[in-house]
Amino acid sequence: MASAYAISVPPQIAEPTNIHAPKAPSIKAFAEAIGQAAALPSNYNSLVDPRDKDEVDDSLAALIPVIDFSLLTSKDPEIHAKAVHDLGKACTEWGFFLIVNHGMSDNLMKDVIEATRNFFELPDEEKQEFSDTSAASPLRYGSSFNVQAESVHFWRDYLKAFTHPQFSIPNKPAGFRDVAAEYCHKGREITKELYRGMSESLGLEANAIADAFGFDTDFQFYIANLYPPCPQPELALGQPPHSDNTAITLLIENGIGGLQVYQRGKWVKVKPIPGSIMVNIGDQLELVTNGKYNGVLHRVTLNNNVTRVSLALAHGPSFDKFVCPIPEIVKDGKLEFKGMNYGEYFYNQQSTQLVGKSRLDLLRISS
């Protein structure tokens, strides 16, 4: 039986008819070289037609759930229970929410975005030291998602680094490792509390999800993204519609906007509250909750005026964990997913094209 994703999401990725790859070491360098008046190269035309404005519903943006993290961690049983309920509802209905009063200082969030931007401002020859095409590399710099596997590319430069249990952030520019280490540590603390609230919202012991993922040795992934101005943003994407291969992703950005989530058959523009952290549910939470939590489809749109910088801090199981639905969730219902070793899942997804929920759909049990 076809997956719900295949039925509900309109196809968007085009096959290019005339390949003209940029002869530049990065999208940043290419965008600066061609300027805003140039035509988009055909192998970056990632939409079949210019984006249909009817597919984007601005009215739904106001309905994006907002979770007050301070209430979730409250010692008052009634306040905590209400926050847990709201968190569970957000995970079930949206698979995406904003958190406020999370304890991450504005200065830390600003500093880590600035340090990330400074990395992308390094000379190209310095950044190329971290160029690596292997998904197994704990530190790699590149463009698009996987240019070797793609016939059409995306308007994005990235830095991907494993940050737990090993910490692989580069030692340049100066100060980058230190501010990233502080940010990653705080991100793990927030994620652990979210896992606790999610477990409780499902009627489980508070540590159930953390235990299912092996939290002490779990995987943390630092994904820095740079989206330069694009000459024809209506024809291209920074990232295609996809779900994350991890469990929870914490996302911050430099205030430009561009993230859209798929909800109720429409794309919804995310307009984060200043100082908030965007959180999306990924494949591994959908898997362990047996589909009760929704791993959200999202994409990144572009503009032709300013550069967007975003930082995704993704958290997933230990690489050696066999991940499957938590038995207590399945005992009174139907098993929706097969299990899989997470390390294998991660490397498979990172080594292919980025398409919707295609990797998770392979584990879906057909009726």
Automatic annotation (TrEMBL):
<feature type="domain" description="Fe2OG dioxygenase">
    <location>
        <begin position="218"/>
        <end position="317"/>
    </location>
</feature>
<dbReference type="Pfam" id="PF14226">
    <property type="entry name" value="DIOX_N"/>
</dbReference>
<dbReference type="InterPro" id="IPR005123">
    <property type="entry name" value="Oxoglu/Fe-dep_dioxygenase_dom"/>
</dbReference>
<dbReference type="GO" id="GO:0016491">
    <property type="term" value="F:oxidoreductase activity"/>
</dbReference>
<keyword id="KW-0479">Metal-binding</keyword>
<dbReference type="InterPro" id="IPR044861">
    <property type="entry name" value="IPNS-like_FE2OG_OXY"/>
</dbReference>
<dbReference type="Pfam" id="PF03171">
    <property type="entry name" value="2OG-FeII_Oxy"/>
</dbReference>
<dbReference type="InterPro" id="IPR026992">
    <property type="entry name" value="DIOX_N"/>
</dbReference>
<protein>
    <submittedName>
        <fullName>2-oxoglutarate and Fe(II)-dependent oxygenase superfamily protein</fullName>
    </submittedName>
</protein>
<keyword id="KW-0408">Iron</keyword>
<dbReference type="InterPro" id="IPR027443">
    <property type="entry name" value="IPNS-like_sf"/>
</dbReference>
<keyword id="KW-0847">Vitamin C</keyword>
<dbReference type="GO" id="GO:0031418">
    <property type="term" value="F:L-ascorbic acid binding"/>
</dbReference>
<dbReference type="InterPro" id="IPR050295">
    <property type="entry name" value="Plant_2OG-oxidoreductases"/>
</dbReference>
<comment type="similarity">
    <text>Belongs to the iron/ascorbate-dependent oxidoreductase family.</text>
</comment>
<keyword id="KW-0560">Oxidoreductase</keyword>
<dbReference type="GO" id="GO:0046872">
    <property type="term" value="F:metal ion binding"/>
</dbReference>
